[in-house]
Amino acid sequence: MPLGLLALAVGGFGIGLTEFVIAGLLPEVARDFDVTETAAGWLISGYALSVAVGGVGLTLAAARLPRKQVLIGLMVLFIIGNLLSAVGANYTVMMIGRIVAALCHGAFFGIGSVVAASLVTKERAASAIALMFAGLTTANVLGVPLGTLLGQAYGWRSTFWAITVIGALALVAIAALVPASVNNRTTEGAAGDASQPTGIRHELSAFANRQVWFSLLVTVLGFGGMFGAFTYIAFTLTEVSGFSSGAVPWLLVLFGVGTTIGNILGGRAANRSVPRTLLTVLAVLTVVMIGFALTAESQFATMVSLVLMGAFGFATVPGLQLRVMTYAGSAPTLASGANIAAFNVGNALGAWLGGVTIAAGLGYVSTIWAGAAMAAAALVTLLVAERVRS
To answer: CB–CB of 45/197 below 8 Å?
Structure first.
């Protein structure tokens, strides 16, 4: 296994921790800055929106630059953003720090996916991408609980200082372990150096292929369906399944374990066949979420569903990322970044749709039904895409 993949995974771990750990620290942040829970929640929403902007904007801006140098620059941006969050004297500075850190998120995973796939043979490309994203899933399993405990024990700023240190370690690892020149063998018609710039016009040419747009839509619907249900999962666990609020963080570890397993196995399956893997995983994810909705009052069934929803939700990630890169041909970088943006657009859409069902008085299980509907729509979209491709 190329050591460069481990360096990318460390970066993914830090970025994943930045994205998710704030949820467990919102009460402390709100009290410290004397803002409402809603205002504190914008530290999460603002981050997600900035990821979508950075995933396309920064990737496009960096199209002419060598990719290793871009990854190093993005980690510098990440460190600056978290340092601002750690030292911010008020809510505004904290929000600026969150936005700065988020801007690097989409571009890092987008460009990092191309570089990761370039470090291995074509047959192992999906597993390489999965390994980079394993940093993010590990952040869910270990980083978020530990980061929350650290923040509760020593103040929420201590968590962001720790993330800043992780960012510095990732920066050093990427500079030392990611080769300056790697052969890109992962995309149709692609040849040459994955570390070299391709130009803005060339990167934009990828979007002339309708399969790229199909891929982005499947990402929005499939991942958004899972995330929409996950957004309100604490309410489902306490109000429907009957768990105590103190049990919620540890129940979320089950979800995190599922995401880690699903990400790894999904990558291995996608190595053999991306279309078959995505069709199977999306179909099973739909069934799992329907089963979750029907059995949410059972605590045992809910625990099983959390693992399965995380597993099949994240099993889509390597295949979705590799699919869009493949159809982008010799211009995979911007399309890869756009797909990271699509993940976050899906997150926002799923969360909004879940909120609509709750506001309509349909109960907390309705968010899971809404997620199942989105996953089913993703499956239908992929079936159509494969039909028109053949």
So the answer is: no
